[in-house]
Amino acid sequence: MDVFFFFLKKILGRLLFPLGLVLCLGFLGAVLWIRRPGRRIGKALVLSALVLLLALSLPVTSWLLLRPLEIEAGTYADP
Length: 79
Known about the structure:
With 79 residues, the chain is mainly alpha-helical. It has helices at 2-15, 18-35, 41-57, 59-73. 81% of the residues lie in helices and 0% in strands.
C-alpha cells in the first residue's frame, strides 16, 4: 500500500507543476475537441493551453516573477 501512495504522490506532484497543469488543460481540450467538434470549449482550452505555455516560457515572465523576490531578499553581501 505504501508503494501505491508513493507513486500517487509522485504523479500528482508532477501534474500540479505549471507545465503539468498546462499539459492537462491541453489534453482535456483535445479530448473535448475530438468528442464534440461542434462546441467551442475544446478549441478554447487547446488555444489557452498553447498561449499559457508560450507565456510561461518567455524570459520576461520569469523576470517579472523573480524580480519581487530578489528585491525582498536584498543584495548579496560579499564576506
